[in-house]
Structures are given as structure tokens and as C-alpha cells.
Amino acid sequence: MSGAPGDEQPGSAGPETTREELLEFITQLATNEPHVRCRVGQGALAPLAEALNGLAALLEARRLASVEKFGIGALVEQSQNMMMTADTEERLRFVNFTIPGLTYEQVVGRSVYDFVLPADHERVRAVIRKVLATGESDTYDIQSYAETGPQWYVVRVGPIRDGDRIVGCTMITTDVSNLKRAQQKLEQSNRELEQSNQELEGFASIASHDLQEPLRKIQSFGERLETLAGETLTPEGRDYLARMRNAASRMRGLINDLLAFARVTSQAQPFVRVDLSRIASEVLGDLEVAIEQSGAAVTVEPLPTLEADSTQMRQLLQNLLGNALKFRQEGTAPRIALRGSVDAATGQCELRVEDNGIGFDEKYLDRIFNVFQRLHGQGKYPGTGMGLAICRKIAGRHGGSLTARSAPGQGATFIVTLPLQHAPP
């Protein structure tokens, strides 16, 4: 501390020790200022200054002992992470707890690579030498050397510096066995999913050729039978013929919808900039006859542009608008609105298809998006029950989601959320 004339250092002799110096020192001592000392000068107060310096030294020693007991040493000793240091020769200099079956003395001084599986030597060596050369921390994951305990670790390697020199490195291990097992399980699931997708593509190829041919024959021979013998058939025979042709037609519709479901991924197109307003206009042109026949009023607000598969965006909007036209209330002209909004903060857009149709009970919400699921009888509303399943799969392929809000007799709102952009793989 200063405050005395002549800039004497604490503990040095000089002018008489003053009361003000003692009061300032006691104030600093009371606030636990580290390493504080009082100048010892001359006069009647000098012995008191020297005694206070002794007290300060005692308090400092006690503080350091407390830090030793409750500080870094305790943290390192009790840590569940293994902590090691190594020198520039890549030999271990410290470890907070040792490898099972070995004493501390049997570990310290040995090469880091004595405790690394041979298959991992080069990868680990590359990380450690990079840290020693550049001073930049790095990590690697590794399978455990020991047969007991955790199976997988992530090791963070950091530099040890002595001034401007790098004299070694620290290695702190974290048990990631559960995470690694979950990752391996996910990879296995992905492999199984890939296999399933390949099988689905194989089915799509078969369905587009082999299964279609018998249906074409059934329909063709049915038409010939009706032309050649239609007048001679009994009413019951004509009914059987009509049922056969209707069944063949439904089967063809099912096959075509299964193909569409499979092709969401198997024949997907690259993402490009897609103007959804233009897509919606084209879809309304395709639905023009259905709109006129039902007397529907369709409102389309400005829609965003996003990165997407344009063919699948067209399929998505056509299915949702087509459903709104199909599931209308008897005696009520359909009113349908297609709205779009953008959340710049999240980089997402939301599409809403709102209608005044028959609606549905939301307890069936998950069911309506499943393959072949219908809430109504087959005769009342046409279709195979796959349209919404295809829509949800399209939304999922684009990194988005599809849900709905509804109540019986109160219409329905289908909500599609899609990202505006896709990061490159």
C-alpha cells in the first residue's frame, strides 16, 4: 500500500508510522484484500504495524488452506470425469484417478497411447499434436481401453502454457456411452428405414407394372362383356358386372395412391425456388369443374415463395383444396380460403386451408393422416383415404409438419408449416 511519504515499500523503515496508515490497512484487512501489508516505519506505532502484518500473514495462510481444501483440488479429486495432463513427449504427468487395475505410479510417466486402443492411435495422435502445435483446443471420441466401466468417451484436449511456450496438454474425458448407444441405435434404425424405403420403391415398381396389368384386363373384359351380352344379362347379372368394374376401378385408385405415397421420397425432385401463389393458381385451374359444380367460393391470399419440390407442392395444395371441396355440407355452398403467412424470426411459413364443410372430431386427428384411414363410409365420399397421408409425408420430406383444427359440422382448418430455406446437406 502507499500513502506514506517517500514511496517506501511495506515493511521498510522510514518516517514515523501514522495512525492514518494503520486505519487504512485495517480497512483493507477487513475486506480480505489479498496479500495486503502495512508499512513498518518508526515511532510508537511501528510495533503495532509489524504485529498487524503478522496477523495478515496468518489470515492469508488460513485462506490459502481453505482454498486448498475446498477449491480446485477438491473439484479435480471428486470429479467423475477422468482428468489427465501430458508433456510435449506425450507422456502422462498427472491423472486424477487411475485406470482400473493399475496404480497411480503405473500410469504416470507412460505414453498416452499405452491407454488407447491400437486402431485409434493415429486419430488420437493427430488431435494431440495439433493442440501442442497450434495451442487450439480440440476433441475426439474414443472407445474405452479398459474392459470395465464406461465404453465410450469424448476427450477434450487443451494446451498447457508456460508463458509463451506450450509445455503440454490437458485431457478431460466425458462418459458418452449412453449417447453412443443411442447414436448406434439411431444409425441402425436409419439403415432399416433405408432398407424399407428400397423395398417400398421395389413395390412401387411392381405396382406400376405387374399389378396394373390384371386390372386393365378385368376392366377391358368387363367392358367387352357389357357390349356383347349386356342386353341378355339378367338384372342380377348386370349388377354383378357393375360391382366387378367398380371394384377394379377402386383397386386401380388404391394402387395409384400407393404409388404416389411411395414416390414422395423415391421420385423426389431437387428443391428449387417455388412461388406458391403460382402453384395455387394452377391447382384452381385443375379443380375448375369441381368448383363450378359445387358452387364453391374459393379465396386465395398471397402466398410465400420458398425452396421446395414444385411437383409435391402442387400435389399438397391439390389434395387439401380437393378435400375441402369433397367434404362439404349438404345444401351449403363450400367456402374455402387458402392463406399464407411468414415468420421471419424462425424462417418458417404457414399455409392454412379453411373450409365450412362437415368437419370432424379432433379425437380422430392422428387417424385421418394414416394410410387408408377414413372417417366416413366409402359410398358417401369418394377416395381411398390416402390423400392426407401423402400430404403429411410431403410436409415431412420438406422438414415441415401438417396438422388440423376442426369440430363436427364446424368446418376444418388444415395447417401446413414449412421452412422457407433448406440448408445444403
From TrEMBL:
<dbReference type="Pfam" id="PF00512">
    <property type="entry name" value="HisKA"/>
</dbReference>
<dbReference type="InterPro" id="IPR003594">
    <property type="entry name" value="HATPase_dom"/>
</dbReference>
<dbReference type="GO" id="GO:0000155">
    <property type="term" value="F:phosphorelay sensor kinase activity"/>
</dbReference>
<keyword id="KW-0472">Membrane</keyword>
<dbReference type="GO" id="GO:0000156">
    <property type="term" value="F:phosphorelay response regulator activity"/>
</dbReference>
<dbReference type="InterPro" id="IPR036097">
    <property type="entry name" value="HisK_dim/P_sf"/>
</dbReference>
<dbReference type="InterPro" id="IPR003661">
    <property type="entry name" value="HisK_dim/P_dom"/>
</dbReference>
<dbReference type="InterPro" id="IPR005467">
    <property type="entry name" value="His_kinase_dom"/>
</dbReference>
<dbReference type="Pfam" id="PF02518">
    <property type="entry name" value="HATPase_c"/>
</dbReference>
<dbReference type="InterPro" id="IPR004358">
    <property type="entry name" value="Sig_transdc_His_kin-like_C"/>
</dbReference>
<dbReference type="GO" id="GO:0016020">
    <property type="term" value="C:membrane"/>
</dbReference>
<keyword id="KW-0418">Kinase</keyword>
<dbReference type="GO" id="GO:0007234">
    <property type="term" value="P:osmosensory signaling via phosphorelay pathway"/>
</dbReference>
<dbReference type="InterPro" id="IPR013656">
    <property type="entry name" value="PAS_4"/>
</dbReference>
<dbReference type="InterPro" id="IPR050351">
    <property type="entry name" value="BphY/WalK/GraS-like"/>
</dbReference>
<dbReference type="InterPro" id="IPR036890">
    <property type="entry name" value="HATPase_C_sf"/>
</dbReference>
<dbReference type="InterPro" id="IPR000014">
    <property type="entry name" value="PAS"/>
</dbReference>
<protein>
    <recommendedName>
        <fullName>histidine kinase</fullName>
        <ecNumber>2.7.13.3</ecNumber>
    </recommendedName>
</protein>
<feature type="domain" description="PAS">
    <location>
        <begin position="101"/>
        <end position="135"/>
    </location>
</feature>
<keyword id="KW-0597">Phosphoprotein</keyword>
<dbReference type="GO" id="GO:0030295">
    <property type="term" value="F:protein kinase activator activity"/>
</dbReference>
<feature type="coiled-coil region">
    <location>
        <begin position="176"/>
        <end position="206"/>
    </location>
</feature>
<dbReference type="InterPro" id="IPR035965">
    <property type="entry name" value="PAS-like_dom_sf"/>
</dbReference>
<feature type="domain" description="Histidine kinase">
    <location>
        <begin position="206"/>
        <end position="422"/>
    </location>
</feature>
<dbReference type="Pfam" id="PF08448">
    <property type="entry name" value="PAS_4"/>
</dbReference>
<keyword id="KW-0808">Transferase</keyword>
<keyword id="KW-0175">Coiled coil</keyword>
